[in-house]
Amino acid sequence: RAPALWKKLRLSRKKPLQLLPAASFRGLLLRGFAVVRRGFGVLPGAVAALREGCEAHLLALLEEWGLCALHAKRAAVRTADLSLVRCLRVKRG
């Protein structure tokens, strides 16, 4: 039987999942660019593309993290699983 994590991941693929709220992400992005250069603007399409890429990366990371826990026959994830995912991603390139 699939753990609750897998059910949530399946639901997230059916509807557009927004892990990062748009307003918060835009504010974070603009503060980051303000440090680099004053008066630097970012187009809304670029912000949406960056946010979508960040969400995809985060979702893939969470999915691999869940796979590590599932492989260890646990329902809960641990920090050791995250360390393993990071190590595997570095080795894969």
Strand-residue proportion: under 5%
Order of helices and strands: HHHH
Task: Report the principal-axis shape.
Answer: elongated
How many angstroms separate the termini? 33 Å
Question: What's the pLDDT, averaged over the residues?
Answer: 77
Which blocks of ≥5 consecutive residues have pLDDT under 50? none
DSSP summary: helix tally: 4
Helix content range: over 70%
Please provide the count of β strands.
0
Question: Oligomer, anyone?
Answer: single chain
**CA-based gyration radius:** 17 Å
What about the largest sheet?
none
Q: What structural class do helix, strand and pairing data support?
A: mainly alpha
Could you describe the 3D structure shown?
This protein has 93 residues and is an all-alpha fold. It is built from 4 helices and no strands. The chain is elongated. The two termini are 33 Å apart. The model has no long low-confidence stretch (mean pLDDT 77).
Layout of SSEs?
Layout: H1 4-14, H2 22-36, H3 44-71, H4 79-92
Which features does this protein show?
93 residues, mainly alpha, 73% helix, elongated
